């Protein structure tokens, strides 16, 4: 059963528009997936969908892949353009429940984790989650100051990896202490050229890698809690690497 | 000598505003550096500057580092806000000459080069140039379809690496043929899981790595010209890596 919506003043349309804000997500306990790629990733992962919304054309194009039993809404083209964050929306969306448990448990977490300390750029954050997924990590912990994983730009650059690996919001002090108490190595990253090279440590099968803020790097108090802090040697004259590139280089060296 | 400009209708102000367009850059044969970091990189590299423009505050803050003999213009805050591309300009800018020779010579080029085939996202392009600089490459060739290196967003993400390594615009067919004729390895990248892993080739001291379009990868005709095409094995469920992350992983494995 598909309900047609033709008024931009419709209550549901207003709720969907509000999903680009934290307040709007909290009100309905859902967040928005924009575009077929993300909707498809949720379907493939058998993730709960609370609604599917699209233009007549988009709903018809993907009819064979849309799951039965999910409330579906047909939108006019002009309404579809007012939902979501992208300048040129594809005209298909879904809403999914906000995860209930975002805390995770550092006492039992296994495999390798990426810890994000005060990473601010949404594109960098989403790209690191996607790379962590590709490199075979278990999950990513969003520490204090790190932008929300429900921001439209984070969701876009994650490309659906939130359905593949665990994402947790927590205090990194707790996770670093728990891992080191369990004798799992936690490798911080450091801009100091005298730190140990990332090439000089053994591969990780369980433990964590910490990436810090784009401008300032990892917080000094967290650096003092890690097993060791690693540096990526720079051969040329660039002062530093983009944080998502640095994370990729380290994860593919130590984990994948 | 600093000239004060108080009218937004000033001819020079109009020229500077036009530098975000190709036509504007061509008219004055210059391009725009926005923000102190990029201006400082140009100064440190002893690069020619044709003008320095800034608010009274910014010019005073950086007076000790500004080179003598360059035409300097003091702008009102409101004029400074109309120049350049960033939403929150820092209030300091410089213009530098467009490079005269952008062709390069694949017959004599030495070291390792990054070839970009139809890469479209300005942030990805700039990040790859910055990473190539950090990894110790000699230069980057901007092939057909790759966005211009003078776009404001490319310039921002390069972070001044255009002053450290060579940037060339050319047909990649010519560069790949010339390198392979000189027996220099050219490694393409491939999304085919049956291709050779990037870990299974020896380090490069001279040659090239080719990165392709974000959605479609390298053009098939170029793939057939390379020495070999490499694949980055994906362990998790992500379908692919961001192109700038993939380039970083390969460059730091094969070159740095």
Could you characterize what this model shows?
- Two copies of one chain form a homodimer.
- With 256 residues, chain A is α/β, with parallel strands linked by helices.
- Chain A folds into two domains: 2-97, 60s Ribosomal Protein L30, Chain: A (2-Layer Sandwich), CATH 3.30.1330.30; 112-254, SPOUT methyltransferase, trefoil knot domain (Alpha/beta knot), CATH 3.40.1280.10.
- Chain A contains ten helices and twelve strands.
- Chain A has helices at 11-17, 22-28, 36-44, 56-61, 77-80, 122-134, 152-158, 172-181, 220-223, 243-254; strands at residues 2-5, 30-34, 51-55, 72-75, 92-97, 112-116, 139-142, 166-169, 186-189, 196-197, 207-211, 228-231.
- A seven-stranded parallel beta sheet of chain A has the order 8-7-6-11-9-12-10, with helices on both faces. A five-stranded mixed beta sheet of chain A has the order 1-4-3-5-2.
- In chain A, β7, α7 (152-158) and β8 form a beta-alpha-beta unit.
- In chain A, α6 (122-134) packs parallel to α7 and α6 packs parallel to α10.
- Chain A is elongated, with a radius of gyration of 20 Å.
- The mean pLDDT of chain A is 93.
- The interface between A and B is large, with 36 and 36 residues.
- Chains A, B: It comes from Levilactobacillus suantsaiihabitans.
- Chains A, B: GO terms for molecular function: RNA binding; RNA methyltransferase activity.
- Chains A, B: Residues 32-102 form the RNA 2-O ribose methyltransferase substrate binding domain.
- Chains A, B: Keywords: Methyltransferase, Transferase.
- Chains A, B: InterPro entries: Alpha/beta_knot_MTases, MRM3-like_sub_bind, Ribosomal_eL30-like_sf, rRNA_Methyltransferase, SpoU_MeTrfase, SpoU_subst-bd, tRNA_m1G_MTases_N.
């Amino acid at each position: 059963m598909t309900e047609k919506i033709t008024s931009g003043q419709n209550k549901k349309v207003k709720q969907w528009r509000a999903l680009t804000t934290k307040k709007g997500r909290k009100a309905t306990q859902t967040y928005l997936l924009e575009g077929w790629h993300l909707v498809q990733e949720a379907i493939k992962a058998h993730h709960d969908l609370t609604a599917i919304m699209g233009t007549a054309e988009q709903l018809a194009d993907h009819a064979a892949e849309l799951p039965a039993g999910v409330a579906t809404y047909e939108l006019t083209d002009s309404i579809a353009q007012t939902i979501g964050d992208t300048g040129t929306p594809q005209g298909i969306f879904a809403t999914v429940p906000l995860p209930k448990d975002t805390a995770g448990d550092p006492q039992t977490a296994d495999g390798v984790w990426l810890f994000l300390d005060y990473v601010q750029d949404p594109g960098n954050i989403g790209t690191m989650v996607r790379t962590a997924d590709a490199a075979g990590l278990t999950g990513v912990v969003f520490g204090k100051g790190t932008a929300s994983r429900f921001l439209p730009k984070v969701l876009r650059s994650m490309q659906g990896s939130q359905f593949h690996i665990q994402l947790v919001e927590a205090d990194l002090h707790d996770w670093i202490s728990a891992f080191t108490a369990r004798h799992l190595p936690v490798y911080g990253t450091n801009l100091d050229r005298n730190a140990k090279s990332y090439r000089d440590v053994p591969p990780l099968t369980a433990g964590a890698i910490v990436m810090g803020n784009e401008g300032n790097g990892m917080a000094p108090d967290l650096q003092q809690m890690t097993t060791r802090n690693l540096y990526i040697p720079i051969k040329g004259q660039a002062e530093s690497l983009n944080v998502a590139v640095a994370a990729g280089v380290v994860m593919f060296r130590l984990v994948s």
